[in-house]
Amino acid sequence: RQGSELSGWAMGRWTYEGIDLNHNFADLNTALWDAEDNDLVPHQFPNHYIPIPEYYTLANATVAPETRAVIDWMQRFPFVLSANLHGGELVVTYPFDMTRTYWKAQELTPTPDDGVFRWLATVYATSNLAMANQDRRLCHYDDFARVGNIINGANWHTVPGSMNDFSYLHTNCFEITVELSCDKFPHASELPAEWENNREALLLYMEQVHRGIKGVVRDRDTEQGIPNAIISVDGINHDIRT
Fold first, then answer.
1. Would you indicate the residue range of the signal peptide (predicted)?
2. Are 109 and 155 in contact (CB under 8 A)?
3. Is the per-residue pLDDT at 2 higher than 80?
4. Cα–Cα distance measured from residue 205 to residue 209, given in angstroms and rounded to the nearest whole number
5. Hey, which end of the chain has fewer CB within 10 Å, N or C?
6. What one-character DSSP code corresponds to residue 144?
7. CATH code, domain with 195
8. Is residue 11 assigned to a domain?
9. What is the DSSP string of 172-229?
10. How far apart are CA 151 and CA 117, in angstroms?
11. Residue 181 belongs to some domain of the structure
12. CA-angle at 46, arms to 40 and 52, nearest 5°
């Protein structure tokens, strides 16, 4: 058995081809921020459903088949809420995962939907039994309990090409990362306890899909639904589409 603090911490992080899937999605952040700096958003450059750069689609691009498969899946199904599960720490992170200042290793980089993301992260963190345990030990050196066991991903460590940022900028999906346990490789005998730690949190998180605006956009004359209609909310510089 290997704990996360031992030499095997990175075991299994890279694919057979040597690709780190956690950094393998297209970097859409840089293109958006460059466009914002040049006052091109949203009239000349979108603030949502940002297209995948051409270089990323080339056959010789360093993109894992697993990543391409997940992107195809995301494009076929209109997901709106997601979480990906990691190990090695006890904290919930939310986008953006990449720092806006390119050379900074850590920088608070909120999305236009920061309030929603903080809520989603808090729902999971406060109902996860391990995180909510006030007597728990630190995993490493960060005391995330002081900040409610949630953190903006970029304010922890920058991750260019993360799935969370890609989901937010290329689809309608809001996605967070849950660091489930100090131990990256729990023994099989510990899995029932891990399930109990996370069962209620997973259910409560899924229920959050009912928050926010819901409905159908219809043609006023025909009453037919309108696909791909853009929804804008005043004060939030990130649209979505039906």
1. none
2. yes
3. no
4. 8
5. N
6. G
7. 3.40.630.10
8. no
9. S-EEEEEEEES-SS--GGGHHHHHHHHHHHHHHHHHGGGSS-----B-TTT--B-TT-
10. 10
11. yes
12. 115
Beta-ladder partners of 212: none
Residue 147 falls inside a structural domain: yes
**Nearest alpha carbon to residue 74 among 173, 204, 5:** 173
Which residue in 179, 190, 196, 207 is the catalytic one?
Answer: 179
Angle between helices 65-76 and 163-170 (to 10 degrees): 30
Q: What are phi and psi of 48, to 5 degrees?
A: -155, 165
Query: Which amino acid, one-letter code, is at 197?
Result: N
Least confident of 8-12, 25-29, 62-66: 8-12
- CA-to-CA distance for 161 and 163, rounded, in angstroms? 7
Q: Distance (Å, rounded) from C-alpha 16 to C-alpha 11?
A: 12
Alpha-helical regions (H) of 52-91: 54-57, 65-76
Q: Domain span at residue 47?
A: 21-241
In one-letter notation, the amino acid at residue 45 is F
Q: Using N-to-C axis directions, what is the helix angle for 191-207 and 114-127, rounded to 10°?
A: 140
The position carrying tokens 């091109």 is 40
Residue 160 in this model has a pLDDT that exceeds 90: yes
pTM over 0.85: yes
Which amino acid makes up residue 136?
R
Find the mean pLDDT for residues 65-74.
96
Residue type, 195: W
Total residues found in the chain within this entry: 242
Task: Please work out, in degrees rounded to the nearest 5, the angle formed at the alpha carbon of residue 121 by the alpha carbons of 71 and 70.
Answer: 10
Q: Phi/psi at 138 (nearest 5 deg)? A: -70, 145
Distance of alpha carbon 18 from alpha carbon 48, whole angstroms? 31
Q: Would you say residue 108 lies in a domain?
A: yes
